[in-house]
Specification:
binds zinc ion; 238 residues; globular; 11 strands; 2 domains; binds ligand BV8
């Protein structure tokens, strides 16, 4: 079903437990490269090759150079109308849950509160020895970063093959299973477990809405699809 703004706005603001799930497409209009778009490459590596524990164990400097490059790029961008619109939705609907797969921190910067960061945050470092997590916004970062204990630090993000932090995942599932409205924006719907969230919401009886420039594996289950840029559609929905 092509976009029906009035109906979707009414449903969003009359819902009890709305959930919004975002992916890289929501940050794309800020100039942050997506993962699977043509700009999703760095030195001809794909994210799946570098965002893994194996890649970091084999060549921590290479993986850190990729993250440092991304941190430098993200430090120069600002939230776009997609992030602002979602922050507005959260202001207007006190019970809105925002789950993001993005690690750029732009939702928080745009004013969204209590963001559930499913895949972690690129601005936090975690010690591989003692586990200490610190916020670090140095760009460029002196590589390889070390913890006060001397241990090698890694980005505090979830790599492929790593489990989503249990507390975050159970919080997400708990919200989704009570959701009556579920909006998914800017995600290709291929990375698990986030890609299963829309189906979970549907089974919970939620009204499903997708905002994406392209069709995705999730599109077939949507009640309403807005095929367009998040930066255009979301402000109209907010
Ligand atoms: C887990 C953090 C198990 C790091 C990320 C087979 C082999 C190996 C593994 C697997 C496999 N099958 C399944 C798996 C598991 C794997 C997985 O799903 N792989 C996929 C690739 C098949 N998943 C995992 O490994 C997860 N963990 O399963 O653990 C486990 C359990 C217990 C104990 C031990 C282990 C962990 C996954 C997390 C990986 N980390 N990021 C970092 O960022 O560096 S994932 C990465 O992809 C980002 O977080 C990103 O957000 C996420 C999803 O991508 P999207 O956000 O969707 O971005 P993408 O570029 O794909 O799409 C952009 C979309 O936006 C497109 O649809 C486009 O059309 C649209 N768009 C573009 N511009 C706009 C727009 N839409 C609107 N407006 C626009 N302007
Ligand atoms: Zn340490």
């Amino acid at each position: 079903m092509e976009g029906r703004y009035d109906e979707v706005r009414d449903r969003l603001y009359s819902s009890r437990n709305p959930v919004v799930l975002t992916g890289a497409g929501v940050s794309a209009e800020s100039g942050v490269p997506t993962f699977r778009g043509e700009d999703g490459l760095w030195r001809n590596f794909r994210a799946e090759e570098l965002a893994t524990p194996g890649a970091f164990a084999r060549d921590p400097l290479l993986v850190w150079e990729w993250y440092d490059w991304r941190r430098q790029r993200i430090s120069q961008v600002k939230p776009n109308p997609s992030h602002i619109a979602i922050a507005q939705m959260g202001t207007r609907h006190k019970n809105l849950t925002l789950i993001t797969q993005n690690v750029d921190g732009l939702h928080t910067l745009a004013g969204s509160k209590d963001v559930l960061e499913l895949h972690g945050n690129i601005w936090r470092l975690r010690c591989t020895e003692c586990g200490k997590v610190v916020e670090n916004r140095e760009v460029p970062l002196k590589l390889l970063p070390r913890c006060v204990c001397g241990g090698l630090q890694r980005p505090d993000v979830v790599w492929f093959g790593e489990a989503i932090p249990g507390d975050v995942l159970s919080e997400c599932i708990e919200r989704i299973e009570r959701s009556d409205f579920f909006l998914v924006a800017g995600t290709s719907g291929v990375v698990q477990p986030a890609a299963s969230f829309a189906g979970m919401a549907k089974r919970a009886g939620a009204f499903l809405v997708e905002v994406n420039t392209d069709e995705t594996p999730l599109s077939y289950m949507m009640d309403v699809r807005f095929s367009g840029r998040a930066g255009e559609v979301l402000p109209d929905l907010a």
